[in-house]
Amino acid sequence: MAMELDHDCPDCGGEQTFYRAASTTMHLGEKVKWHCPNCDYGFVQISDNGTVVDSSVDA
């Protein structure tokens, strides 16, 4: 269970180290909320069996 994640932050511009704000297990898999410590930007990832859905990715 990682507590930090390097990820692009659209508000700060560039890669930042995000911190795990919360997590829970649901029927879809593990839901993790990540937050940038430099601004208010956050996103959610839901992962199950190697498949990851990332709310920060544009469709």
UniProtKB/TrEMBL annotation:
Protein name from the UniProt record: DUF7838 domain-containing protein
Location of the DUF7838 domain: 1-56
Short name of one Pfam family: DUF7838
